[in-house]
Amino acid sequence: MYNFEYQKASSAADAAAKIKAAGEDGKLMAGGMTLIPTLKQRLAQPSALVDLGGAKDLAGIKVEGNAVVIGAMTTHAAVAASKDVQGKIKALAGLAANIGDRQVRHRGTIGGSIANNDPAADYPAAVLALGATIVTNQRKIAADDFFKGMFETALQPGEIITAVSFPVPEKAGYVKFPNPASRYAVVGVFVAKTGGGVRVGVTGAGNSGVFRAHKMEEALSKDFSAKAIEGMHPPADAMNADIHASAEYRAHLVGVMAKRAIAAAG
């Protein structure tokens, strides 16, 4: 590690003021599941760190009309245990329950995960598939406009995610092929059926990060069944390749996980 100024925000407004005063080199910290390891490795070297842990107004879950609104500092464990999430979007509760291990689920937050946009994180697939709205201290951002590539989002410097609003779907399912050590998604597919059609979000696979499988969406909007996408998968040249899986294997897994997600949706 190295020296930096540490500040703990008491609210969303306090965090916005502190990060603005910190300047271009300031960083926000939610659960710290990604930031702390990168600080240790000196891959990130901010001059100031603003901890959101004390901003109680950024945590909590509520149902507003036909949407479940989750505060940015709500932990994965809280999402998984929420009766509102279980009752309205069971697939989202199941997704949260299988992130990392128990320690990660009790420290990591939904806002931190989405803001970081790790290409193997689980939440981005749900955000895209459910057509969620990311609420910040400055504006509202549609899911399709939020993710810009690996570790990149539409967030501007100093902009803070305050909540994520998830429309309640008719049916939804999420299944991932997890890395046995980290539990990150080698490939994860979230399928959601709504009155407007079907959306499919894929994480862990794309060489540009999370993406929507549009051809699958078209087929499933006509026939919401595993048979409708039999033999369908994205091109291998659009997939990520690493020590865990080749591009060809990931392309194959997208098709397999999508069919399982449809089965899970019921």
Please describe the topology of this protein.
Elements: E1 5-8, H1 12-22, E2 26-29, H2 35-40, E3 48-51, E4 61-64, E5 67-71, H3 76-81, H4 83-88, H5 90-97, H6 102-107, H7 110-116, H8 123-129, E6 133-136, E7 140-142, H9 143-146, E8 147-149, E9 152-153, E10 161-167, E11 171-178, E12 185-194, E13 197-203, E14 211-212, H10 214-222, H11 247-265
Parallel strand pairs: 1-3, 2-3
Antiparallel strand pairs: 4-5, 5-10, 6-7, 6-10, 8-9, 11-12, 12-13, 13-14
Structure keywords:
Uridine Diphospho-n-acetylenolpyruvylglucosamine Reductase, domain 2; Uridine Diphospho-n-acetylenolpyruvylglucosamine Reductase, domain 3; four-stranded antiparallel β-sheet; 33% helix; single chain; 266 residues; 2 domains; five-stranded antiparallel β-sheet; alpha+beta
How would you describe the overall organization of this protein?
By secondary structure, the protein is an alpha+beta fold. It folds into two domains: 5-51, Uridine Diphospho-n-acetylenolpyruvylglucosamine Reductase, domain 2, CATH 3.30.43; 58-265, 2-Layer Sandwich (Uridine Diphospho-n-acetylenolpyruvylglucosamine Reductase, domain 3), CATH 3.30.465. The protein has eleven helices and 14 strands. It has helices at residues 12-22, 35-40, 76-81, 83-88, 90-97, 102-107, 110-116, 123-129, 143-146, 214-222, 247-265; strands at 5-8, 26-29, 48-51, 61-64, 67-71, 133-136, 140-142, 147-149, 152-153, 161-167, 171-178, 185-194, 197-203, 211-212.
